[in-house]
Write a structure and sequence with these properties.
377 residues; alpha/beta; 12 helices
Amino acid sequence: MFGTRATLFELYGATIRIDLNWIFLAPLLTWSLAQGYFPEYYLGLAGSTYWWMGAFGALGLFGSIVFHEWAHALVAKHYGLRIKNITLLIFGGVAQMDEEPPSPKAEWLTAMAGPIASFALSAACYLAFAAGYRIHLPIVPLGLIGYLAFVNSLLGGFNLIPAFPLDGGRVLRAALWHWKQDLHRATRWASRIGSWFGLALILSGIFHVITGDFIIGIWWFVLGLFLRTAAGTAYYQVVVRAKLGEAPVRRFMTPNPATVPSDLALDVLIEEHFYRSLHEMYPVMEDTRLIGCVYSKQVAGIPRDQWTQLTVRDILTPCSAENTIAADTNALAALSIMKRTGTSRLLVLEDDRLAGVVTLKDLLKLLALKLNLEGTA
């Protein structure tokens, strides 16, 4: 749950993605608004009108979340933090950064920017609602404006709950970090509180469903389930950064890897190399110069009758920042490249010379070994 995402657009250099659970949660939100919220506050409208208001209300929440995350990205950029991507969820967003904030102050201000933006938008909508009421604005747009005022205050308030990775949890982490001068420990405690709070929401949701308050119960259960999952994931990411950020690639790469010449025929590459060694990638050399690499998956799309007519040079992937890494770069950077490109193998270079190959399996083995020997504390 909360894992599959689709890319929407760029915002201050960050890729904005939407969690595909919106496909299921947006209809649930629309139904909640059409059958619960709007009929309770705006009586006597047609059923179809409530459904239209519910649909536009769901879109309004989506736009409010984008505005909330825009404020985070703006402050993060001020502190030189690069937010790689922001995943939009039903109650807010989760930002993924290449590195941790440089100080507790930067963490606090970046975290607070979102709720402040939501409260500011809520205040603006409340003023617009008051003005619309005085000039007798039609009930449907007036109701939507009133809903946006309410939902933004709810969005800002919910995100201030001190449960990591919500904004309030990040504020709590900043305070613990400032107090203990230990980001790792601060994250562990903030994550535990987030996990406990998520469990409390789940139990509350079950209680509400049992007692007949179905809509509230379902929402508390969904939010609690997310918090339990996200709190553990956020802490694990910090652990990974700590364990892999200090290990240079050269320490665990495979040195002097087997290579293939650029003029090698594909049928020979397949029979004598891929099938014999079971490697999925080979560095490609031209004389003594590394010019790229060739993957087994590249051959898969080539008709078998062309294997004897083509050479490695015809299909190779040239060296680039997408498939190479310097030997003194840390393992965390290697993992970041692999996640971004979807590849599981990188060429390791030292002074533009092939020094080795590092694989995702190598990184995972290193991480497992470090966790086993050093623990997560």
